[in-house]
Design brief:
alpha/beta
């Protein structure tokens, strides 16, 4: 396995530029902030960007936890990529991560510095975004990231690389809990109001009676809605359409990961 290291100070655009670097050097996998990503898919690990403090984030990024380290090592052995990029704030950090994950000796690593692949202006812009917006990049698609970051601000950023066949790589921008800007919460009433709006705009659905949501430990939502259907409507079709719309709209408006939506039709009435 060929090991590469990408190092640079925090906030200089390492994760943002990782996908383009991997495409250029044909690197198959990435180790970034506690995650093992292969082919754009998060295979194993816990994102350091999810931790509540910077200290916990650093410990996660360097795989200090033995159990988590073993899970990621096993995943790397199972997937067996031909090449892997380890991202860190210094060559020493890259080498530490490689050692803990059993990825070879320091002499086996080909080191690349962020200064080698970006301009001063690009690094200044990356620092400005980090310092003033508290935003961090994860080099994986939003649908891959959503489970770990359910309920966080997320923004998919797509980049296009000129090649024989145009390829698109997606990055996800998140604002971690340890950001100085703090975290946010969305009340259950907001979820209920969104569902009420969806019901009002769905043909065959006459009235929302109640909407309730519950979250698991990862803040992933399960939603239950009780409605009255219009006279003469096809109940199963209405329920299926509501399930689809609720998943799409609540996900889009709140960034919560929706585990399931249950629709209960209690009766029939004329639409208001």
């Amino acid at each position: 396995m060929k090991i590469y290291g990408l190092s640079g100070k925090s906030g200089t655009g390492k994760s943002y530029n990782a996908i383009e670097l991997c495409a250029r050097l044909k690197i198959e996998a990435i180790i970034d902030d506690g995650l093992f990503i292969n082919g754009g898919v998060i295979i194993a690990g816990t994102s350091a960007k999810k931790q509540s403090t910077k200290i916990k984030a650093i410990k996660t990024a360097i795989f200090e936890d033995e159990a988590e380290r073993q899970v990621v090592r096993a995943a790397i052995e199972r997937v067996a990529p031909k090449s892997i990029l380890i991202i860190g704030t210094s060559e020493r950090m890259v080498e530490m991560i490689a050692g803990r994950l059993g990825l070879g000796q320091p002499a086996d690593i080909e080191h690349i510095h962020i200064e080698d692949i970006t301009t001063p202006a690009q690094r200044d812009k990356a620092r400005d975004v980090r310092e003033h917006s508290g935003m961090h990049v994860i080099p994986a698609p939003t649908f891959q990231v959503r489970k770990q970051f359910s309920g966080y601000f997320m923004d998919p950023r797509r980049s296009f690389r000129k090649a024989k066949n145009a390829q698109r790589a997606e990055k996800t921008v998140v604002r971690p809990t340890f950001s100085y800007m703090g975290k946010f919460e969305i009340s259950e009433k907001v979820i209920s109001d969104i569902i009420g709006y969806i019901v009002a705009g769905t043909p065959g659905a006459a009235q929302l009676i109640l909407a309730a949501s519950s979250a698991d430990a990862d803040s992933c939502l399960y939603i239950r809605a009780a409605i009255n259907a219009e006279w003469g409507s096809k109940v199963m079709r209405v329920a299926e359409e509501l399930q689809k719309k609720i998943i799409e709209e609540v996900t889009k408006m709140t960034n919560f990961n929706i585990l399931g939506v249950e629709i209960e039709v209690r009766g029939f009435r004329e639409k208001n």
